[in-house]
Design goal:
The protein is an all-alpha fold and 157 residues long. It is built from 9 helices and no strands.
């Protein structure tokens, strides 16, 4: 892939600064970072953003996520590897990422309400919105992805 624009962050610096501030805020939000890695990776898979897929795979591996859970993520509904909380977050991620097709169904929201408190519900939705924006920018400009991943932590199964 040939990048369409290589200096987009510099050209729209005033627009990207708040996005980076949002990412900093997400690191301090009440939702566990491992779950946010899964959310960001799943949205990036749906959106076909190679740059973000590689980045979020790398971050998840670095933070101790298991390779098997990362491989199984596209089939999370059929896998026993994910908790009820993760399932609720992944369903909501898919609903908001495919909003035009799903309309954010009540059934998915009810799963979120059952497993996340009100603050977490807000942060989860913000995180999903943020990764969808990043996917659209990075995929739209065809930003190249790195060509390697870090080694998984030795204690990760």
């Amino acid at each position: 892939m040939t990048p369409r624009l290589t200096d987009h962050m510099k050209r729209a610096e005033a627009g990207f600064k708040p996005l980076f501030a949002l990412e900093t805020a997400l690191k301090a939000c009440p939702i566990e970072q491992g779950l946010l890695h899964l959310v960001k990776l799943r949205a990036s898979q749906i959106n076909g953003c190679a740059y973000c897929i590689q980045m979020h795979l790398s971050e998840a591996l670095r933070d101790g996520e298991t390779p098997l859970r990362l491989h199984m993520l596209p089939a999370w509904r059929e896998s026993s590897l994910y908790s009820e909380r993760e399932r609720a977050a992944l369903a909501w991620t898919e609903s908001l990422t495919r909003l035009a097709d799903t309309g954010a169904p009540d059934a998915d929201w009810q799963m979120v309400e059952a497993t996340f408190d009100a603050d977490e519900q807000a942060w989860l939705s913000v995180a999903i919105g943020a990764i969808n924006l990043w996917n659209r920018v990075q995929a739209g400009f065809r930003v190249p992805h790195a060509t390697s991943l870090p080694e998984a932590k030795a204690d990760a199964a």
